[in-house]
Amino acid sequence: MLKAFTPRAAGFAAAAVALYLAGRLTGVPELYMLAVAALALPLGALAVVTWGNSRLTSSRAVRPVRTSVGNRISVTVRLDNPTRLETGVLLLEDRLPYQLGPGARFVVPGVPGGDRELLNYELRAAARGRYSIGPLAVRLADPFGLAQVTSELAGASDVIVHPRVEPLSAPGLGGELASSAATKVRYLFSQGDEFYTTREYRDGDDLRKVHWRSSAKRGQLMIRQEERPWQARAVIAIDLRLAAHRGQGGRASFERAVSAAASIALRLGRSGYELALVADDGQQVRPAGMADQATAVLDFLASVEPTSTPSLVPMANRLARTAGEGLLVAVLGVPSSDEAAALARCRLGFGGALGLLVRTDSWLGLAAREVAAADAQAAGIATLLDRAGWRTAMLSRTQPLDDPWRRLTAPLGRATLTTHRR
């Protein structure tokens, strides 16, 4: 709590000294009384505002606590006066990080005793990140303007701004790479009437699944073990290397890559995939068992920063060692030939691999000859990956993400040719 006298209080103090000196010179006792009153009034004002401000309470409601870049955040501040006396004029400021805008300021003429004041304002999430709103600074002044007290109430409220999310079509891949629900059924029999396994009958089992041949051999009822639940899995690999990206601020290729990874995570999460995310520097998010795994991935992407990793080869090697059944989706700058070779090797451990190659050179404004050279290099890398079993598509600066996403996830045999739009 910060307590302070105003310039007007300093004037009263000077008047008190002048009255005291005048009383000494003239011998008029009333001047001493006026001097004491002039000095006591600011002290009394400070005591009043200190007591009044210390009794105020405040709370804050933020909706939503998670949002995406460009969306609005609604904030409601409640100020309560539990005393019997009305407060003086209140000056309030809810402090904000600059990414959410200037501080929200209010002037409240006064809050009656036992009453409350509700203050509402909106913020625009301009940049991804984790932010704290508050604390609420409350400045209370006395009616004479002699003293003021500033205190901090309501504490801080956290809000997470996810990367900008682009709407994507549902993935159209066939076979085990498609998933329209949280779980699928995988059939375990091999061929003909041969079943993958049988087990003993348990109370409640469907008698239509009794395998009579095995039951006759074993002398007890045996049940066909035909199916088991299967969770579709997807690993999203993202290239966060500072050296691989171009541009500055919110429109840089780095931000576009983060946005693309967030959009893909949300789309796959809604399609029922169990998600994991792996970054080039070894950071991982594996929210297994969580009801909303996409939110955990987006929370991580909200605060990621560019890394100093020199190459994608270590990430490709880690993916090869930890590969499992499922889908690999990589959001990368156009890799070098060595990096592409490492990515080609790690493809073998996954059921499928999709490569979204961010054309970071489209952020540079290259000349026509340089554009042609960059196109040729990107096409060569894409061909190398395609021959290794990847499906690749390019994403340029002005291109909607859904265009390459449709090409990546088109049903097998229907993928359209990759175009290079700048």
Describe this structure in words.
This protein is 30% helix and 27% strand. The protein has helices spanning 7-26, 29-54, 212-218, 253-270, 293-301, 313-322, 337-346, 368-387, 402-409, and strands at 2-5, 57-63, 66-68, 72-80, 90-94, 104-108, 116-124, 129-133, 136-141, 147-153, 157-162, 184-187, 197-200, 222-225, 227-230, 233-238, 274-279, 284-285, 327-333, 352-358, 391-395. The chain starts with a strand and ends in a 13-residue tail after the last helix. It has 4 domains: 2-54; 57-162, Immunoglobulins (Immunoglobulin-like, Sandwich), CATH 2.60.40.10; 184-230, no CATH class; 231-409, Rossmann fold (3-Layer(aba) Sandwich), CATH 3.40.50. Strand 16 (233-238), helix 4 (253-270) and strand 17 (274-279) form a beta-alpha-beta unit. Helix 6 packs parallel to helix 7 (337-346). 36% of the residues are buried. With 422 residues, it is an alpha/beta fold.
